[in-house]
Design brief:
This protein has about 190 residues and is mainly β. A hairpin with a 2-residue loop joins strand 13 and strand 14. This is HutD family protein. It comes from Rhizobium metallidurans.
Length: about 190
């Protein structure tokens, strides 16, 4: 049976970036309280106010989504820059290669999902909820981050309402179906053993 935890926006932990260049709002980390060098997975938000390099996280895969702002271009491992905006699909890339960010026009806020390579995999989906949406076949761990609006979530043996900035963490969620109802922009994060 899934174990549900509601994470409210007011409970998130603020901390400096690994490279000292800004601040991160940590939504959730596993194991709880793990150091940046020891986590299995980590979900966070960061405001990027200047161009520059990303922190390097050895052995980590990451996916980035733009939550607010005009967007930013990422030059990943020497490849041509990719422009990410609020409308872009979440972008997955290794966190242990050289990545440089160039802001399009002013600061942005991003959603950052990281998992330890070889132990876990993850997927991030941007979902616009306008009425009722069904999400089927969840993996071991499922997080629903409500970025804008409000959403009611229902699954076998559970129900919760999320406001703007809140997150549902469902563990042992393999195979469950999740009903989403409301007017919201959400990010669905699924994780499981590799």
């Amino acid at each position: 049976m899934p174990r549900a935890t509601i994470l409210t926006a007011s409970s998130y932990r603020r901390m400096p970036w690994k490279n000292g260049g800004g601040e991160t709002v940590e939504i959730a980390i596993s194991p709880e309280g793990a150091a940046l060098s020891e986590f299995d997975w980590r979900i966070s938000m960061a405001t990027v106010a200047t161009d520059g390099p990303f922190s390097i996280f050895p052995g980590i895969d990451r996916t980035l989504s733009i939550l607010d702002g005009e967007g930013m271009s990422l030059a990943i491992d020497g490849r041509a820059p990719v422009l990410l905006t609020q409308e872009s699909a979440p972008l997955a890339f290794p966190a242990d290669v050289a990545v440089s960010a160039t802001l399009k026009s002013g600061p942005i806020t991003d959603l950052n999902v990281m998992t330890r390579r070889g132990g876990l995999w993850h997927r991030v989906e941007r979902v616009v909820v306008d009425g009722e949406v069904t999400f089927g076949g969840a993996s071991g761990t499922l997080l629903v981050f409500c970025h804008r609006g409000a959403v009611n979530l229902t699954w076998p043996d559970g129900e919760v309402s999320l406001g703007e900035g809140d997150t549902l963490l469902l563990q042992d969620a393999t195979g469950i179906s999740l009903e989403m109802d409301g007017q919201a922009l959400c990010y669905l994060i699924t994780m499981d053993a590799a």
